[in-house]
UniProtKB/TrEMBL annotation:
<keyword id="KW-0812">Transmembrane</keyword>
<keyword id="KW-0472">Membrane</keyword>
<keyword id="KW-1003">Cell membrane</keyword>
<keyword id="KW-1133">Transmembrane helix</keyword>
<dbReference type="GO" id="GO:1903785">
    <property type="term" value="P:L-valine transmembrane transport"/>
</dbReference>
<feature type="transmembrane region" description="Helical">
    <location>
        <begin position="164"/>
        <end position="182"/>
    </location>
</feature>
<feature type="transmembrane region" description="Helical">
    <location>
        <begin position="189"/>
        <end position="212"/>
    </location>
</feature>
<protein>
    <submittedName>
        <fullName>Branched-chain amino acid transport protein azlC</fullName>
    </submittedName>
</protein>
<comment type="similarity">
    <text>Belongs to the AzlC family.</text>
</comment>
<dbReference type="Pfam" id="PF03591">
    <property type="entry name" value="AzlC"/>
</dbReference>
<keyword id="KW-0813">Transport</keyword>
<feature type="transmembrane region" description="Helical">
    <location>
        <begin position="131"/>
        <end position="158"/>
    </location>
</feature>
<dbReference type="GO" id="GO:0005886">
    <property type="term" value="C:plasma membrane"/>
</dbReference>
<dbReference type="InterPro" id="IPR011606">
    <property type="entry name" value="Brnchd-chn_aa_trnsp_permease"/>
</dbReference>
<feature type="transmembrane region" description="Helical">
    <location>
        <begin position="73"/>
        <end position="93"/>
    </location>
</feature>
Amino acid sequence: MKRAEILHEFVGGMRAMAPLTTAVVPIGLVFGAVAAAKGLSSLEAAMMSALVFAGGSQFVAMDIWMHPASWSALAFSALLVNIRHVLMGASIGMRMPAFSGPAKCAAVLLLADEIWAMAELRAGQTRLTPAWYAGLAIPFYCVWVLTSLAGSLVGAFLGDPKAIGLDFAFPAVFTVLVMSFWKGRETGAVLAASAAAAVLVYQLLPGVWYIAAGAAAGVVATLTRGRQREASA
C-alpha cells in the first residue's frame, strides 16, 4: 500500500472514530478527577491510563482504592471487568487477514470497547486495514491519556462529578455502542438476559461479580438463540 493510501486510510479511521473520541473526553476528565481525589498524582493517573487503557477497570479500581492498596483485590477486579476482552480479541482477530503478526498484536494491545465496535462495523462492510484501525485507535488512546492527565490537574475545581452530571458520560457512550449493534428482538433478548443476571448478582454478591455474570448470561443467551435458529432452519 502506497504512503498516500495509508494516510487516506488512517484519516478515514480517525474521522469515523471522531464522535466517540470526542465523547471520551468527559470520561477521561472524570477519571482523572476521581484519581486525584483518591490521592494519585497527575503522573500516576496518566500512567495508569497509558498502561491499563481500560476505562471500566480503571473506574472499578478507583472505586475500591484504599491506602495501602490491596493489589490482589485490584488485580482480580480488573480481571473480572476486562474478561470480555478475550471475546472481543477473538472476534476482531478473525477480521484481520490484512494484518501482520506484530500489527495484530499492537491492534489487540490498543483494543477498547469503542475501538472494537467501530472495527467490527468496518469489517462487516469492507476489508479492515492496519492503517484504518490505527486511525481509530491512536487518536482515541492519546485523548484518553491526555484527558486523564487534565482531569487530575483540575480535579479540585471539577468537584464531585455526579453533581455536574459528568458521571453519565460513561454509560451514555456504551448505550450508543449497544444501539449501533441493534438487530431487533434477538439483540433485545441478549441484553435482557445480561441485564437481569447483572442486577441479580449485584444485589446478592459484593464486588464486581455482576459484570462477569452479565457477560456470561449474554454469551449463553447468544448461543441459545443461535441453536434455536439452527434447529428451526
